[in-house]
Structures are given as structure tokens and as C-alpha cells.
Design goal:
Length: about 150
């Protein structure tokens, strides 16, 4: 087994880990905002310590593009309205849909893999499959040939 950092190099691996933690923190913040019936921006303003920049960017972006994000999810979430989705799944899907729309430097495969892992970790195994299916359809609409 090789101990070398691989073709991406150590800086790419550090970035990936930082973004993974930021997505996880964004999930926590969106979940908290929803449970407290606060806007995500309002929750961010009330925090004693600001989260990582990418986490803040995700949370603010989800709020800023909420109508578009929920519209995409609603079109591709077969059998579910966005409001009826389990809260964790809804937050994960919103983060990933925002990334697909706005964070074009993040490859589609990375967005989907990260979202599925978050869903499996914080929701259920079935949630991982559901999130993957919805986001694959969203990615096809938003990113077309990149999906």
C-alpha cells in the first residue's frame, strides 16, 4: 500500500477534508435554523463564533436561492413535496442543489458523493439512495453534460 498522497497531492486532500467539514457544519446550521424557525442568515448572525467560510457560503447561498433550489428539488423528488421530506434529507438536498447551481468548480460526482454520505451518516441508509436519485436528476437538469 502506498503512503504517497496520490495524483491530487496533499493540498487537494486538505481542501476536500475542509469542504467536507464545511458541508457537515452547513447541514447542522440549516437544521438548527429550521428547528428554531429562524432564517439561516439570522442564525448565522446570532452565532458567537462564525463558522468556516465555505459553511457560511453554503448556508447563505441556500437561503439566497431558496426558491430555485426548492423548485428543482420539487420537480425531481418523486412522490414527495419538499415540505414533507425528512428535515435532514431536505437540508442535505438543499446544500447539494445549491452547490450544483452555484459552485461550478465542484464536480458533480463530488457533490453527489458528499450529499449521499451526509444522508447516510445523519439520516438512514434509504436516505442515501433517495438523495442520490433526486440529485442525479437535478444534476442532469442543472449541469447537463457534466452530470
Amino acid at each position: 500500500m502506498s503512503t504517497s498522497p496520490g495524483p491530487e497531492g496533499p493540498s487537494r486532500q486538505v481542501l476536500t477534508g475542509a469542504r467536507r467539514r464545511a458541508r457537515e457544519r452547513a447541514l447542522e446550521l440549516l437544521y438548527e435554523a429550521e428547528t428554531k424557525d429562524l432564517s439561516p442568515t439570522q442564525l448565522l448572525a446570532e452565532l458567537p463564533v462564525a463558522p468556516e467560510q465555505y459553511a457560511s457560503q453554503l448556508v447563505s447561498g441556500v437561503e439566497r436561492r431558496a426558491g430555485e433550489v426548492d423548485g428543482l428539488l420539487g420537480r425531481h423528488a418523486m412522490g414527495w413535496t419538499v415540505e414533507r421530506m425528512p428535515m435532514v434529507d431536505r437540508c442535505v438536498l438543499r446544500i447539494a442543489a445549491y452547490e450544483l447551481l452555484e459552485e461550478l468548480d465542484v464536480p458533480v460526482a463530488v457533490v453527489l458523493d458528499e450529499a449521499v454520505e451526509l444522508a447516510k451518516t445523519y439520516s438512514t441508509e434509504d436516505s442515501g439512495r433517495y438523495v442520490n436519485g433526486v440529485l442525479s436528476a437535478v444534476a442532469g437538469e442543472v449541469r447537463g453534460d457534466q452530470a
